[in-house]
Specification:
It comes from Paenibacillus barcinonensis. Keywords: Acyltransferase, Cytoplasm, Iron, Metal-binding, Transferase, tRNA processing. It catalyses: L-threonylcarbamoyladenylate + adenosine(37) in tRNA = N(6)-L-threonylcarbamoyladenosine(37) in tRNA + AMP + H(+). This protein has 340 residues and is α/β, with parallel strands linked by helices. The chain contains 11 helices and 10 strands. The strands form 2 sheets. The chain has a 5-stranded mixed beta sheet, with helices on both faces. A 5-stranded mixed beta sheet has the order 8-7-6-9-10, with helices on both faces. A hairpin with a 5-residue loop joins strand 7 and strand 8. Helix 2 runs parallel beside helix 3 and helix 5 runs parallel beside helix 7. Bound molecules: adenosine-5'-triphosphate (ATP), magnesium ion (MG) and fe (iii) ion. Adenosine-5'-triphosphate binds next to helix 4, helix 5 and helix 6.
Length: 340
């Protein structure tokens, strides 16, 4: 099968053609990050307008690069949610138009299912599997009992990890998006400012990051009032160690409890060197299989949407043409209905 996939949920416009759910024939990504930098974050109206400007040309180029004739496409997939409603809408209108013109099925796809199935672009998945989703808007542990069956076992109760990184980065004077800067500073640090680990109730797989973020801001302010300055790299190191320790511990505990055969890391924060190294070391020590996609498939891209949509396509589970952008789309509800 050949699925053409469209992703416009946030500030990346992306179009891909994916063969059989895991072979990427083309995957074009146009990032708006330079546009939004001036505002210190993503401005929704600006994001929608930028998607409109590039989407048509990107559709043409992604098809051309794939070497597949439009009439040979099997289905058109598009991110239906979660995301910015206006941004999602641009992709959905483009995908519906193309699907109607070509007479192909439409597959509305869950953005986080996409992040998780980015791992299928790397390797055959084995179930049950556990996914640790760490992105700009999500921090979740997802149990996959079998292919395409999602169960949320833990989530953040306040900030997402990427969001916390960006806020701490801003307090340390780094430009948006600050996650990679904090990562680099942490790796170069010679000192560590100790910060609290937030575990929540015993046995909970939930996360909380706003307290840690406040602890960073307090430490910076208190030092300032004493007329001292904390070494920014030491703060970055302390923050990163606190975040990574909790993520690794909870992910490994979940893998044990659910008998997962693989741990799948995904989302933009999967780029974090501290997190990758800690997970790799821990999984190697405990004999657990860890899968991490390459960077281009960790941040937002359409190839991952094509990989997730394939789960629905092989089961004949398409989406009605009156489907709407759904910023609150549930991952569990998006699970496949039947066995393949
Ligand atoms: P969602 O998928 O939840 O809707 P998103 O798609 O906007 O969110 P991603 O593109 O997956 O998020 O990830 C972007 C986030 O990843 C940003 O917050 C960015 O700061 C963070 N990030 C990127 N690289 C690193 C890194 N090396 N260390 C820490 N954070 C990072
Ligand atoms: Mg982005
Ligand atoms: Fe994303």
């Amino acid at each position: 099968s050949y699925i053409l996939a469209v992703e416009t949920s946030c500030d990346e416009t992306s179009v891909a053609v994916v063969k059989d759910g895991h072979v990427v024939l083309s995957n074009l990504i146009s990032s708006q990050v330079e546009t939004h930098k001036a505002f210190g974050g993503v401005v929704p109206e600006v994001a929608s307008r930028k998607h409109v400007e590039v989407i048509t040309l990107m559709l043409e180029q992604a098809i051309e690069q794939s070497g597949i004739r439009p009439r040979d496409l099997s289905a058109i997939a598009v991110t239906q949610g979660p995301g910015l409603v206006g941004a999602l809408l641009v992709g959905i209108v483009a995908a519906k138009t193309l699907a109607m013109a070509l007479g192909k099925p439409l597959i509305g796809t869950h953005h986080i299912a996409g992040h998780i199935y980015a791992n299928r672009l790397v390797r055959e998945l084995q179930y049950p599997a556990m996914a640790l989703v760490v992105s700009g808007g999500h921090t979740e542990l997802v149990h996959l009992e079998s292919e395409g069956k999602f169960k949320l076992i833990g989530r953040t109760r306040d900030d997402a990890v990427g969001e916390a990184y960006d806020k701490v980065a801003r307090a340390l004077g780094c430009p948006y998006p600050g996650g990679p800067h904090v990562d680099r500073m942490a790796s170069e640090a010679e000192d560590v400012v100790p910060l609290p680990r937030v575990w929540l109730e015993a046995g909970s797989y939930d996360f909380s990051l706003s307290g840690l973020k406040s602890a960073v801001l307090n430490a910076l302010n208190q030092a300032k009032m004493r007329g001292e300055a904390l070494e920014p790299s030491a703060v970055a190191r302390g923050f990163q160690e606190a975040v990574v320790e909790v993520l690794v511990e909870k992910a490994v505990r979940a893998v044990r409890e659910y008998g997962s055969r693989q741990l799948l890391l995904c989302g933009g924060v999967a780029a974090n060197r501290g997190l990758r190294a800690a997970l790799q070391e821990r999984c190697a020590k405990e004999g657990l299989e860890l899968v991490i996609p390459p960077m281009e498939y960790c941040t937002d891209n359409a190839a991952m949407i094509g990989a997730a949509a394939y789960l629905k396509w092989i089961r004949g589970e398409g989406t009605d043409f009156d489907a709407k952008a759904d910023p609150g789309l549930s991952l569990e509800a998006w699970s496949v209905q039947s066995e393949a």
